[in-house]
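Re: your question from the hallway

Yes, I did run it. Sequences:
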Amino acid sequence: MTRETVSGSHRKPPVAAFLSLLGVFAVLPLALRGLDISLTLGTEVLIIALFAMSYNILLGTTGLASFGHAAFFGSGAYAVAIAQQYGLGGAAIDLVLAFLAGLVAALLVGLLVMKKRGIYFGLLTLAFGQMFYIVALRWDDLTGGETGLTGLKRPAPFGLDLNDHITFYYFVLAIFMVAVWVIWRITHSPFGSVLAAIKSNEVRTQYLGYHTARYKLGAIVVSGAFSGLAGGLYAWFQYAAYPQNLFWIESGNIVILTLLGGGLSSFFGPILGAAVFVGAQDLISSYTEHWMFFFGLIFILVVTAFPNGLPEALARLLSLVRRPTRTTDASTAAVRAAPNRGTTP
Amino acid sequence: MSGLKTENLSVQFGAVKPVDDVSVEIAAGRLTSIIGPNGAGKTSFFNLLTGLYQPTRGKVFFDGQDVTHMPVHQKVRSGLTRTFQILNVFDTLTVAENIRAAVQRRHGRSAYMFCAPDRHGPVEDEVDAIIERVRLKEKRNIRANDLSHGHRRHLEIGLSLATEPRTLLLDEPMSGLGMYESSVMGEFVRELAQDLTVVLVEHHMSVVLSISDTILVLSQGRLLASGTPAEIQANPQVQAAYLGTGRYDLPQEGAGHA
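Structure:
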């Protein structure tokens, strides 16, 4: 996984990183087949990874911990399902609706929380997130109540049969790559650098003349819109929209897997977090129904030892393996340190 | 002009009144220093002027306009900004990124989401000019975190300059600096005062006396005296206030004043 600081602006897009990302996910179906694991697991990883990347616009880039992000994800899922109830559908329409649903939901919540920081921000997003869940649970006529909206049909863009596992996987991968690229672009834009400034020091940012609440609202809305998009894909994935998609546990999961992936310091980290989370859920739950207990244990161990999550843990592990010759160790350390030290001529 | 004025400015936290009924005028285009023994209310007064605190009573005027309840970002946009005693820069960003964050707003580019931040000529020219002005050219691409304390002080002033202030409030820019660095900073502040209204809170008495046009003395939250450095040095009340605390020596001669 490519290590890169979230806040740093870079002159060139990391083409190599994007190509390796595409490469890994392009061959993943072969690996899964070799391991006799269903490809739906890979598709789920992609969708949750997109959700995590969206979430990290707030957590990693802006430094705001939202505990109600499932509301935006779920809004996207319900938008697709509800539209279909009214005979509205098609791949493009579904995706646009999901994106807009996440955007509008985030705008509503954002307007109420944009002036808050820290724990108040977190608790308010949690509370507002739960309100979305309650609405989905109670508004039977629109949302199907407790059972949700089932029997959803996947669209057939360009005559593709998305009910086919492999076709669906690659279709989701295409959307995922485009969305992640757009998120990269936004994170490394002038707007993104204001978000990085807010993360570093919000009061100081105000003394640069920024109405920081507006930029926080912007970050929430962008993050919510892409979360909604991920939710829309998830509705296709599960042929349904369920109230659980909006539930606070879902919001908690996304925080956990983003931190596990090192989202605070690594742009691509949340993808790794999503892969490990979804993979572990599948693997551990085939042995025990208390999978969350064991996953929680992994999470606590990794995050207490390595605040920057799995990428940091892997880097340490690699450096242990490479230990044998001290000279190479020292030289790689020097190379690694060089960019930080800057250019003293 | 870009002067500041306060009317009966007071702030109260519980039973404590760090600033008590202070009415002063800070003339435009000059270097005004605020001094006083520890706990005199200098920093609180400063925080009231710049909107970090809301006053319990009284008003603040900037350019003749009542800015008492103006939000911080609007004060900055109208040309009033500050630095902080406890260093306040964007630690995780490089020097250039720090300055750019401030510059790009004035170019109306901060809402742009689909381009790189560092490829816009006019912004980059200005970023480079400010970096040069605060003498950090060699440190352009170094993270603020990795700078020396003195360089971070320079960077913080650069951040404030990047907002194009007409009035700049400096909160102890020499704290934590050595003798030599302090005198360099002193010269630098004097230089800034050629184009800007500068308000300075500072403990380094010899520097304050040598560079200020006007000095305001606060004691126990109240305005004790105001005048030129020479007048302030000769003021027996001021001497008493300082001697009373035993913390500072007020130099008797016009130390280093040209």
